[in-house]
Write a structure and sequence with these properties.
With 199 residues, the chain is of the alpha+beta class. It has a single domain, classed as Aminopeptidase (3-Layer(aba) Sandwich), CATH 3.40.630.30. Helices cover 22% and strands 38% of the residues. The chain contains four helices and ten strands; from the N terminus they run E-E-E-E-H-H-E-E-E-H-E-H-E-E. The longest helix is centred in the C-terminal third of the chain and has 15 residues. The two termini are 26 Å apart. The structure holds coenzyme A. Coenzyme A binds next to strand 7, helix 3, strand 8 and helix 4.
Length: 199
Amino acid sequence: MYYSWGKRSDRRILKTDSNRITRSDPQTEHRRLQSLQIRRARKEDRETIWQIFHAVVAKGDTYVFDPNISRRKALAYWLGPKTRCYVALSDQGIVGSYILKANQPGLGSHVANAGFMVSPSARGRGIGRAMAEHCLHEARRLGFRAMQFNFVVATNRTALRLWKDLGFKIVGTLPDAFRHSRRGFVNVYVMYRRLTSVI
Ligand SMILES: CC(C)(COP(=O)(O)OP(=O)(O)OC[C@H]1O[C@@H](n2cnc3c(N)ncnc32)[C@H](O)[C@@H]1OP(=O)(O)O)[C@@H](O)C(=O)NCCC(=O)NCCS
């Protein structure tokens, strides 16, 4: 399996060995992790997933979950029966997690939905991008024809930049749909990209 890693202008094609992603660009090595393994989550990952989930939602700036959500409810959502959960492991252990599922049941089930969380201490090192690229690959492999993000908070510049860079387009704006913990009511974007080529 091959992954690209890094900025579009600085993209290297990297060979992976059973989902281990290894960089080959020493110039930007200081910022990036040397290798990252992405695999399906296991039972023993639950505590670390919860810690990352809690750190992300407690800030109240990216996800709609109650910032005081319980561990039980958080894990019931993130590891739900119809959701595939993955973790990203560096030499520091689990540094991020993502979920992949159908966005709708039945006749809408060919469109995927996904959610991403990187540990605050591991941000800006390419983990979000690596998980998103892995997710797009997995979604295609599972037969999804498109991916939709239902709730991208307009002030979430990191996510917006990353999703746009990966080919997602804003297809709708939900005015004031998110009550940001610091900024009050802010817009939310619905973002979409096809996973199949259109002739
Ligand atoms: C969004 C998130 C998953 C990105 O993960 P990350 O590991 O920090 O991101 P990466 O290091 O892979 O950077 C990806 C891109 O984001 C952008 N980015 C990263 N840090 C940024 C910053 N501080 N400001 C603006 N853009 C930034 C860059 O475009 C970067 O691309 P590059 O490869 O060209 O540098 C992570 O920040 C996170 O978990 N945020 C909280 C939860 C969240 O917002 N989830 C998404 C909900 S839609």
